[in-house]
Specification:
It contains five helices and 21 strands. It is an alpha+beta fold. It has three domains: 43 residues; 137 residues, Lipocalin (Beta Barrel), CATH 2.40.128; 163 residues, TATA-Binding Protein (2-Layer Sandwich), CATH 3.30.310. The strands form four sheets. It has a 15-stranded mixed beta sheet that branches. Strands 1-21 form a two-stranded parallel sheet. Strands 2-17 form a two-stranded parallel sheet. A hairpin with a 2-residue loop joins β11 and β12.
Length: 378
């Protein structure tokens, strides 16, 4: 083959290669994405929204405090893009209000006895809406709201290692004991909780303080958080790492003791899972833009290696890398008439001279014309 013929063939091959390369990039950059847009358009639910509950109250978020200055936000999903499979409307559910009961005071007294308190430890008047007890044994304080049935038990566990036997708990027994607790005090009737998930953190004492346990023989107590979902979407509270049903417990002894369940939080609201009310939601692009502008609510900051048994300490957050974006429903300890959706942005944060940690942000999902302005607790 002559040099002239070889040069001609090379030029011809180069042209073919260039055409193939151009076609390939056209498919990758334009045709496939636009094709997906067309599929999404054709498969989108064309039914109009049905906002039968009218204009909704604002979601009242609780902001986790962080040190200034405000962080920088970076999209860090696997493909570097925002998720595509986001619906254009979401169901809104009615939350059942607390029912008045002439037996509320009697039931609160019975709950207190089961948890380990005596009648003579009641420190409030029986005519009060909120009953309060102080244990002469543990120093723990129990509060029960007879109107809302919210229940909170706090005990200072510093140096109380002798009350908690090592090797007496594992993840399965902790779940069982916590279910027995909330069933006994009638805060476990909701089917969504029964079918939901429990997250367990096993603990032990090192010196006078509680820390997470790695080996079963050393486990002395456990923290159990209850979570639920509806129609495949998680239901999250002000802090996504903590359930609105939550307890720290030991292997309960048969006799009533305030050390069986030394810490309890029960903010129990039953959800009516049957709903036809749908509301339009904002696009994920709009939600992400609001987060980038600093309008998202930081709901969780967990430094790497943090002890789940310790209270949150204000952290410095310089950069937030958002790994995952999804829809969830938001509930609070206080009664809300309706369960509403929100966008959740979860990922990692980095800060100079630290190991960083996990972070979560919330932003309301329902379109602005159907809801009042957002509120947040500072």
């Amino acid at each position: 083959m002559s040099l002239t013929q070889s040069a001609h063939n090379f030029k011809k091959g180069a042209k073919i290669f260039a055409v193939v390369l151009v076609v390939y990039y056209l498919f990758i950059l334009f045709i496939i994405p636009r094709g997906q847009d067309l599929v999404d358009l054709l498969t989108a639910n064309k039914e109009p929204p049905n906002p039968e509950f009218g204009i909704l109250d604002p979601l009242k978020f609780t902001r986790k405090p962080i040190n200034d200055p405000p962080p920088r936000y970076t999209l860090n999903t696997k493909d570097g893009k925002l998720p595509r499979k986001i619906p254009n409307k979401m169901l809104v559910y009615r939350i059942k209000p607390a029912q008045f009961s002439f037996q509320a005071g009697k039931e609160a007294m019975e709950d207190a006895v089961f948890i380990g308190f005596r009648e003579d430890e009641l420190t409030t008047d029986l005519k009060a809406d909120v009953y309060k007890w102080r244990s002469l044994v543990s120093g723990g304080i129990l509060e029960i709201d007879t109107k809302t049935r919210s229940l909170k038990m706090e005990t200072d566990l510093y140096g109380r290692f002798s009350e908690f036997k090592a090797g007496s708990l594992n993840e399965d027994t902790a779940k069982r004991f916590s279910k027995e607790l909330f069933t006994k005090i009638n805060r476990f009737d909701d089917k969504l909780y029964v079918e939901g998930e429990q997250v367990v953190h096993l603990g032990r004492y090192i010196g006078n303080n509680i820390t997470e346990a790695r080996n079963l023989p050393e486990v002395q107590l456990a923290r159990v958080d209850f979570f639920r979902e509806i129609n495949g979407y998680p239901i999250l509270g002000p802090d996504p790492t903590k359930g609105l049903l939550s307890t720290v417990l030991r292997n309960p002894v048969k006799t009533s003791s305030p050390f069986n369940y030394p810490r309890i939080e029960a903010y129990y609201w039953e959800i009516n899972p049957e709903s036809t009310a749908t509301y339009p939601i904002i696009t994920v692009e709009d939600a992400w833009a609001q987060v980038q502008q600093g309008n998202g609510i930081i709901s969780n900051v967990t430094p790497k290696g943090a002890n789940v048994f310790d209270p949150y300490a204000k952290a410095r957050v310089e950069n937030i890398l958002v790994d995952n974006i999804y829809l969830a429903y938001y509930e609070t300890p206080e009664y809300m008439p309706y369960l509403q959706p929100m966008f959740v942005f979860s990922g990692k944060y980095t800060t100079k001279n630290t190991e960083g940690g996990d972070v979560t942000l919330y932003y309301p999902a329902i379109s602005g014309e159907y809801t009042k302005s957002v509120e947040s607790d500072q």
